[in-house]
Amino acid sequence: MEPGGAEPPSKVFTFKDDQRSPPVCLSVSIPEVLDPHYGMYVWPCAVVLAQYLWTRRETLRGKKVLELGAGVSLPGVVAARCGAQVTLSDGAKTPLCLDNCRRSCEANGLLDVGVLSLTWGEVSPELLLLPELDIILGSDVFYEPQDFEDVLLTVAFLLRKNPQAQFWTTYQERSADWSIEALLHRWELSCVDVPLETFGADEAALAGSTLPGNHSVFMMVISTKT
Ligand SMILES: C[S@@+](CC[C@H](N)C(=O)[O-])C[C@H]1O[C@@H](n2cnc3c(N)ncnc32)[C@H](O)[C@@H]1O
């Protein structure tokens, strides 16, 4: 509840699988805050990553998942509702985003999701003390070129500690000049592009939301070079 008693407005996302008989679906409710800061509302990339998680839901059960730069945490919430053991994180300097992570968990009845501050590029006690991980999530974390290396430093650190883990990430192409290729090479990471059509995300509307629209969103899986 907000000071003054007003609940923040929520967006509902409904993921469906009509191929199943009977069809299955999952609805999650994500409170958003009317504030221009990046981590206060759902970004198009989050809907695409959440759709990927939904299509992989059977492999997620019991998996240890960490979301970086979670903001209002749509992907992490979907992973938790699909049975993963989820920890949500956002930057230490944006405590309001950490409040958003908690609020999104409460809105979906998730009582056992951890929330902690993890600032990209910082080797903090929180980072060092993280338990074993299977999957790291990052939706729209490559949006400021000056932060790209910090994101990958954190990811490379976690993947070295958990060599079987993968970083599942979606990004929005905002400039054709931006690339993480050289940084992937520097941090000895490999990357596989996952075409959106392979998981039903090549649509302007997903999960009942028109957020993806005509944005150029891409999905990739990053792992350590073998
Ligand atoms: C574009 S928003 C994406 C939010 C959410 N993942 C989504 O897709 O809806 C970027 C997120 O990264 C977080 N962030 C920005 N800089 C960060 C940093 N240096 N360390 C950790 N998180 C950071 C922001 O607070 C925000 O939640």
From TrEMBL:
> Keywords assigned by UniProt?
Methyltransferase, S-adenosyl-L-methionine, Transferase
Q: Which GO terms describe its biological process?
A: methylation
> Could you give a GO molecular-function term held by this entry?
methyltransferase activity
**What InterPro entries does the database record attribute to this sequence?**
Methyltransf_16 (IPR019410), SAM-dependent_MTases_sf (IPR029063)
* GO annotation, cellular component aspect: cytoplasm; nucleus
Q: Does the keyword ATP-binding apply?
A: no
Q: Does the keyword Ribonucleoprotein apply?
A: no
**What protein family is recorded?**
Belongs to the methyltransferase superfamily. METTL23 family.
Protein name (Swiss-Prot/TrEMBL): Methyltransferase 23, arginine
Upper lineage is: Eukaryota, Metazoa, Chordata, Craniata, Vertebrata
Q: Which gene encodes it?
A: mettl23
